[in-house]
Design goal:
The protein has 162 residues and is an alpha+beta fold. It contains 5 helices and 7 strands; from the N terminus they run E-H-H-H-E-E-E-H-E-H-E-E.
């Protein structure tokens, strides 16, 4: 599989069901790791997801391998800040580089003026933290929400990133 094999583009409203299915499959392992079956990606409804796809300031990219959506990433744009979330890769394809391709694909979709990109993940999600660190995201702080503790990482964009 090469980068040319993955078609990355904005997710349409017609693809919301496929996106919901991908996210649920991808986040089951995260829920199991933290012992919480009620993490937000697993309880979001199709209606809520559809509303999110149409929301101002939200960019949702999907990655297709052939006709199958195998990855997705959501970006919330607020002023000069972009926050990544709901980053998902199909469980059977994790570790093959699709996540890296999705992470790198967001930059051209960001509007002008974005100075920093934030991402958060479970504090104990070692593979996620390693991926972000490899691509220039630096740990800033941890924040607890209910029983989960999230690590927040930031990447400052420079001339070469935009």
């Amino acid at each position: 599989m090469t980068q040319a094999d993955l078609d990355i583009r904005p997710v349409t409203l017609d693809e919301a069901g496929e996106l919901l299915t991908l996210r649920r499959a991808a986040f089951v392992t995260e829920a199991q790791q933290y012992g919480d079956p009620h993490i937000p990606p697993l309880v979001q409804t199709l209606e809520e997801l559809s509303e999110d796809l149409q929301a101002d300031g939200v960019i949702t990219l999907g990655g297709w391998y052939g006709h199958r959506m195998v990855g997705s990433i959501r970006v919330l744009v607020e002023g000069a800040k972009a926050t990544l979330g709901r980053f998902a890769v199909a469980p059977d394809l994790q570790g093959l580089g699709f996540g890296t391709q999705m992470l790198l694909a967001i930059l051209p979709y960001l509007p002008d003026g974005i100075e920093e990109v934030w991402v958060f993940t479970g504090r104990d999600s070692v593979q996620n933290l390693a991926l972000y660190a490899k691509h220039g995201y630096e740990h800033q702080h941890d924040q607890t929400a209910g029983d989960l503790t999230y690590a927040f990482l930031r990447k400052t964009l420079g001339e070469t990133d935009a």
